[in-house]
Amino acid sequence: MSEHKEPSRRDATAPAGNAARPVTLRINGQSHTLQLEPRTTLLDALREVMHLTGTKKGCDRGQCGACTVLSNGRRIQSCLTLAVMQEGRDLTTIEGLSDGDALHPVQAAFVAHDALQCGFCTPGQICSAVGMLAEARAGEASAVQPLAAPTLPLGDEEIRERMSGNLCRCGAYPKIVAALREVGGRQGKR
Questions:
Q1: pTM of the model
Q2: Where is the 2Fe-2S ferredoxin-type domain (predicted)?
């Protein structure tokens, strides 16, 4: 009986002769052409090939949200999408949110409210929050607000529901909610 050996994730991100193909990704405003196997996840391309390690590999199953990035402004779990599926899209990682030394408003609110402990989930939380606020601004429905209507400023229950796909092992949820209440309130008054 022959044993079937699964290739490791690291093998999937390394150029592998004829199996690798050019994939052009627009990441944080710049185009990059990478040689990737078609089965390479966006998460592995970002971390292992592009060395953008702000995006975290938590569960690698789409359950924790640590790998959340933005694709055309929409939040996605980078461990669940293949890099080749993101060609032609604008990808934003945590590294691309700030403008030089000027933090994105969500990043600044996280700092001001001390909305982190170990920080492992923070990049995914912040990217998810940026996408979530855009969804709310656009009037997208949620389980709390089922009818499509602009929902800013956001209440605590709405924030918790919309951020429910991002887990924090340290339990910093009250401070995360406070940070997003502040940012959502400011954006709701524009």
A1: 0.86
A2: 21-97
